[in-house]
């Protein structure tokens, strides 16, 4: 007997990228899976983003809500936590507003959803030059995931991303079993049960960029939620871009917080004084220690 698909919400983070967000929402308008809603988690964009969402809500028929906070630096974790709370679905797919989903993206996450796991998806990296040439029709008909368009545009930033373009479910599953890449929580493409994200208290709001997504995944793992590798099955396209918000000092601080989350590897915990990995942050959706 087949499982009933869970009620789904997609959460898309964005900041001052209305053109990219529009392409992404067109991608969600042609998904093979119906019945999901979208929450745009906006880290302080100007009015153009809100206007674009209003127009696309009418044009696509998508159920899109817009959760926004004022611009006060990189606070992606904070707005994502708000979006997690407000999302209506039992199962949440988290991605970025500049990641265009393949038409089977939502359906793949829905099919792979199972208790005790989170899904780690993949992305096809497109060059910034190719990104300027993506048209609405390339999104709607899926051309940008097909070899002819990618070859003509010389679009692939990484040649090995070709393996993620397979449309064969069996081959994609086989590639996911063979890959040596670890399954991690990826901010551009991951999904989990809402109850599990609440169980670990969402994102740590002390963290900026980068590795804020990986830290969440490590808390999920510490809580017993195992990763399911789907980098060849759940696929989106991301146009490469500069990251002016990357701060070396913030990166070093984030890595220290991440090390605290990981704790000591399990084989070494037999020695007294070694810390266990944590599965809760006091700086997440709820502030303070976990309540009994």
Describe this structure in words.
The protein is an alpha/beta fold and 292 residues long. Helix content is 35%, strand content 19%. It has 11 helices and 8 strands. It has an 8-stranded mixed β-sheet with strand order 3-2-1-4-7-6-8-5, with helices on both faces. Strand 2 (37-42), helix 2 (47-60) and strand 3 (64-68) form a beta-alpha-beta unit. Helix 1 packs parallel to helix 2 (47-60) and helix 10 (212-222) packs parallel to helix 11 (248-262). The radius of gyration is 19 Å and the shape is globular. The mean pLDDT is 92.
Average pLDDT across residues?
92
In DSSP terms (H or I, runs of 4 or more residues), the helix count works out at 11
Strand content: 15-25%
Approximate helicity band: 25-40%
Low-confidence spans: none
Structural class: alpha/beta
Write down the Rg: 19 Å
Number of strands: 8
Spatial order of strands in the largest sheet: 3-2-1-4-7-6-8-5
Task: Write down the overall geometry.
Answer: globular
Largest sheet: 8 strands, mixed
Question: How widely separated are the two ends?
Answer: 37 Å
Helix and strand pattern: EHEHEHEEHEHHHHEHHEH
Keywords, separated by commas or semicolons:
single chain; 292 residues; alpha/beta; 11 helices; 8 strands; 19% strand; globular
Q: Helices and strands in order, then pairings?
A:
Layout: E1 8-14, H1 18-29, E2 37-42, H2 47-60, E3 64-68, H3 76-86, E4 91-96, E5 99-101, H4 105-112, E6 117-126, H5 128-131, H6 136-140, H7 147-153, H8 169-178, E7 189-193, H9 194-199, H10 212-222, E8 226-239, H11 248-262
Parallel strand pairs: 1-2, 1-4, 2-3, 6-8
Antiparallel strand pairs: 4-7, 5-8, 6-7
Helix pairs in contact: 1-2, 10-11
């Amino acid at each position: 007997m087949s499982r009933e698909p869970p009620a789904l919400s997609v959460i898309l983070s964005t900041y001052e990228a209305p053109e990219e967000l529009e392409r992404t929402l067109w991608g969600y308008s042609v998904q093979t899976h119906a019945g999901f809603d979208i929450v745009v988690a906006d880290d302080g964009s100007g009015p153009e983003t809100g206007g674009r969402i209003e127009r696309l809500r009418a044009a696509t028929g998508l159920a899109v809500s817009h959760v926004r906070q004022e611009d006060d630096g990189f606070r992606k974790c904070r707005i994502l936590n708000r979006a997690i709370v407000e999302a209506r679905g039992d199962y949440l797919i988290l991605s970025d507003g500049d990641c265009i989903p393949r038409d089977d993206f939502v359906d793949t996450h829905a099919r792979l959803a199972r208790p005790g796991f989170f899904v780690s998806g993949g992305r096809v990296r497109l060059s910034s030059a190719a990104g300027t040439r993506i048209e609405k029709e390339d999104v709607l008909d899926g051309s940008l995931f097909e070899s002819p368009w990618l070859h003509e545009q010389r679009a692939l930033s990484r040649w090995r991303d070709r393996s993620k373009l397979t449309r064969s479910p069996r081959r994609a599953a086989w590639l996911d079993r063979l890959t040596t890449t670890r399954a991690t929580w990826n901010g551009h493409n991951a999904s989990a049960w809402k109850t599990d994200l609440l169980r670990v208290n969402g994102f740590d709001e002390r963290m900026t960029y980068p590795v804020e997504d990986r830290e969440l995944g490590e808390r999920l793992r510490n809580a017993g939620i195992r990763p399911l590798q789907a980098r060849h099955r759940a696929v989106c396209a991301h146009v490469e871009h500069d990251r002016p918000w990357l701060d070396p000092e913030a990166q070093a601080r984030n890595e220290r917080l991440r090390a605290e989350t990981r704790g000591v590897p399990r084989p070494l915990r037999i020695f007294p004084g070694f810390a266990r990995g944590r599965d809760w942050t006091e700086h997440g959706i709820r502030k303070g220690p976990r309540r009994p």
